[in-house]
Known about the structure:
Elements: H1 12-22, E1 29-34, H2 40-51, E2 56-62, H3 65-74, E3 82-84, E4 98-103, H4 113-123, E5 125-136, H5 149-155, E6 162-167, E7 174-182
Parallel strand pairs: 1-2, 1-4, 2-3, 4-5
Antiparallel strand pairs: 5-7, 6-7
Helix pairs in contact: 1-2
The structure holds S-adenosylmethionine.
Amino acid sequence: MSTAGRVFAATPRGGERAARCLDGVDGDGIFLDVGAANGLLLESLVMWGAERRWRIDPWGVDTSAALVALARDRLPRWADRFAVGDGRTWSPPGGRRFDAVRSELGYVADTDQERFARRLLDDLVAPGGRLIICSYLSTRIATSEPPSPAEEIRGWGWDVAGEAAAIDPWTGKVFTRIAWVSR
Ligand SMILES: C[S@@+](CC[C@H](N)C(=O)[O-])C[C@H]1O[C@@H](n2cnc3c(N)ncnc32)[C@H](O)[C@@H]1O
């Protein structure tokens, strides 16, 4: 089986990352991954959510048509929930809103990050829902930690509702940081 065909959470490393992302969720809900790639994180969140007896309804959008095609191919039961689009402008069908929206600030230039987060929060997160911002350690800079999205968000003068960090079980280093804000 290819790497893309494996459930992310099936490895200790992927499982820790998915579990921390799930910390930003507080129960059943519709979850949108902006930058969903091949759907592996969504697939893992559904699995880990079920272990907490939560029903996570997965949706994904990605700028890469090839990765969206792969996600649809891997996860045919959710094929109509994966869309090709840019998180800066994408509008979901029927004006749908989501209980949780996950994304990364690194998708846009530093100067556009607050505007990007504001657009996700206002246009895609349902009232009472959450925007979850993740930051991952790049394998190219293995000695440092991922930037803190909580610090970034507080720097804009926004309230951070919660934050979490995932520790790589193999290296003991922080390799994922997440922060979430409520709408
Ligand atoms: C590191 S992967 C994230 C995969 C998965 N969501 C996770 O957290 O493990 C980043 C993905 O974001 C997509 N992406 C980058 N900029 C984007 C944007 N502006 N809108 C939507 N997707 C974007 C890339 O094509 C890539 O597939």
